[in-house]
Amino acid sequence: MPFPLPKQADARIDVSPLIDVVFQLLIFFVVTTTFLTDTGIPLELPEAASGQSEAIQQEMSVRVARDGGIRFQGELVSLDDLRDRLAAAVKASPKKALTIYGDGQVDYETVVQVMDAARRARVPGIVLATEQPLNPPGKSP
Q1: Kind and range of the H or E run holding 31
Q2: Is the whole model's pTM more than 0.85, yes or no?
Q3: pLDDT tens readout for residues 66-88
Q4: What are phi and psi of 32, to 5 degrees?
Q5: Are 88 and 98 in contact (CB under 8 A)?
Q6: Are 98 and 126 in contact (CB under 8 A)?
Q7: Which residues, 6+ apart, have CB-to-CB distance to 7 below 8 Å?
């Protein structure tokens, strides 16, 4: 007498725990990821206790390196070429301010020349980037 074979259960894999783990990993990586906003030349910005931190969207930026090199929007330019590029940028979007990131050890004359080129290009506003000091005057740690 033949015995009946047991019925095999459908093999199913429950993917709910897998989805939970993948979602937790996604959240972990989103939270711990650092987003680089600006890669460029390393600068030591001067400190200013009265400086304000502002989030500026789509700014025009000029970086003045310690050796006097000038970069507009990341490209190395001469002082003469800077005025033309600034004028073209102002024509394209007239309400953008210019942020000047000057190294703390840069020659003062170079920063003044960059500011003069910006004024002659009719840039509506100029911002000088600074860093907050670690121990501001008048505050004890």
Answers
A1: helix 16-32
A2: no
A3: 888 899 988 899 988 999 999 99
A4: -95, -5
A5: no
A6: yes
A7: none
User: Using CA of residue 52, residue 53, residue 59, residue 65, what is the dihedral sign?
Assistant: positive
User: What residue has token string 């009265």?
Assistant: 50
DSSP track, 83-123: HHHHHHHHHH-TT--EEEEE-TTS-HHHHHHHHHHHHHTT-
Cα gap 37→59, rounded to integer Å = 12
Angle between helices 79-92 and 108-120 (to 10 degrees): 40
State the pLDDT confidence band at 3, using cuts at 50, 70 and 90.
confident
Question: Which residue is associated with the tokens 């970086």?
Answer: 63
- The residue extents of the domains of the chain are 77-105+119-133
**Cβ(83)–Cβ(116) below 8 Å:** no
- Longest CA span, the chain: 106
Three-state SS at 61 = strand
